[in-house]
Amino acid sequence: MFEFNEKFRLSSRSSLAVFGPFEVAVKLDGQGQPEALTPRSTEQGQQGTVVHRFGNDADTVRAELRLSIADNGTLLASVSAETVNDNDFGKQRAFAAEHAIIVKIRPQERIEGLMANYQHKDWWTRPHFDTDPARLPERTQSVVWRTAGGFYHLLPVVGAVWRTDAAGTEDGFALRLSAYESGRRKCETLAFAISAGDEPYRLVQSNVDAALKALDYPTLPRESKTYPELLDRLGWCSWDAFYHKVDEAGLLAKAEELQKLGLPVGWVMIDDGWSEVKDGKLVAFEADPVKFPGGLKRTVSALKERYGIRHVGVWHTIAGYWGGIHEDSTIARDSRDSLYQVPRGNLVPYPDAGRGFGFWHAWHGFLRRQGIDFVKVDSQSAVLNYLKERRSIGEAAAAAHEALEASVALHFNDTIINCMGMASENVWHRPKSAVSRNSDDFVPQEKRGFPEHALQNGYNSYYHGAFYWGDWDMYWSSNHDDKQNAVLRSVSGGPIYISDAPGNTNPANVWPLIYSDGTIIRCDGTANPTPDCLLTDPDKQPVPLKLWNTAGGAGVVAAFHIHPEAAPVDGFISPDDVPGLEGEEFAVYEHFTQSCSFMKAGQREAIRLDESGYALFAVVPVAGGVTPIGLADKYLSPASVADCFAEGDSTVVTLREGGRFVFASKGHPMRAIVNGEAAAVKQINDYVYEIDGGSSDRPARIEIVMA
């Protein structure tokens, strides 16, 4: 892997070798078009920093672009700018609220392919694929590209005040800085980070780590966060089951059904529709008295005590409800010091962390007393829509998230699912919450909803996974795309929960995702597109979408046909699909066919998927005559292997729970012993053998003796 300080040794001229001459333009309040600034000087600063200075002919605007190398080799670019005014009492020159400062960079090496994640809606991002940087969409939040020399990753940053976006320009990228608040005469911010190297999956993490360290935020990268223990259990959400018609009777009926099915759901999320609202605004902390005549506490108690649901959560928005807090409510009167009226009249939590906390503390304290254990917080990217021109975007987002998360930490042990919050100001300003929605909504009625859902989740995870474990949304266990959705979530690394209506849950499509106690079988990290897919659009090219992760010391690769045409798509499976997986030889096992091949690193085999088809591969390093795959009826089979060791001709495997155990071998197993008793060995396929590992209510110890 090369780094910037190795590739061209940062100096007054070296950055030009990679990006060409930098250009800076500014846009002032009342100005129609940006004004290009003239380069004034470039000089070497302390500790290798390079400073490029710019100004206009009238000397009314000055700007500096400072480049430095972080300890991990990331290039950090900071912008300082100011307007020059004759006095403080006259009309002032100030930066425009949007796109006030524009930095243009031009990659000098030809781009062979790029993948950008851009904000296509206020709430969500999706991927864009190209070879021409000029076509980069508005509001791009991450760009990875490949040249003959390797990979680059560009990460626009949101600082304490300013947000940076990327967009295409004539022959490069335009980095555009916005405070979303007029009247500012100075800018001092970290604007973007760039990493370069041979391993694209390391670059985004390098950028996030270096930028957060430079910003000195309370925000943590995902690797420094703790995944909420509560979300390690299977969940059920009311949204797609009831939508806004959720009520106590429906929730209890569904809980009774799940209990009768023997499906060990660990948590229930009561989604939108439970609150008492008027005119689209929150009226009370308590639930709607018509839908929940005994109050929220009675419903929660019944779910837990009668039906064995361990944890119950509720939904709300970052403004309380979609339209905020009703001005004629008791909340407005009792929490008036913690609320803020925006120009359109809506009341929202005050955009100061200390004052806004008062509202959340009051509501969350009430919810905790009703037995609520966690929250899902929606509409988070509405912070900009509510507070534009009232606060800078950095200040508004920081205040909103710090107040919210302080209350969640106090009342719910940091357990929160962030939602509708993929705008970069939200991504960068949550102090420590660990889970955030990774895509637009799952919509069960859409016949071709899965391809876009899989595309967004797979590619958004490339940058979003450096900050959060992605919530890939609820799904239906009985639907036209049920198995694809289950397989997709199995490799996500995040929470898994269903949203079936009463009478529609299919346990057979859920059990492959969980152990017998309802613990989800979760990957080690967050999923990513495989190296051959990272810069390729499987919606436009007739190739499978392949996503990789790791579990139980093995790689896992899920492959999907998401192309709009019905013709089969062709691709390859290889140990190289899982970067960093150690070993010289691998057993590559496909879950649904139970077929297996032995491959060396660098080898590959062709795969073909029919329309709406899918496949799931375990890539297990070979370390002896027996290669344990794991439980045959679990999607992440290798995760079920708790331990494995070999002594002579004998291999001993410990499973987390009993069940159908499969292993791969080129030899001939002679006999097996399960929990001290002889067991049959059945050959399933070439190289694939199966042993009955006993009941799932306890771990299994399996000894395999080779001939």
TrEMBL record:
Cross-referenced Gene3D superfamilies: Aldolase class I (3.20.20.70)
A Pfam family the protein falls into: Raffinose_syn
UniProt keyword list: Carbohydrate metabolism
Coiled coil listed as a keyword: no
Organism of provenance: Paenibacillus catalpae
Keyword Endoplasmic reticulum: no
Superkingdom classification of source: Bacteria
Record-given protein name: Raffinose synthase or seed imbibition protein Sip1
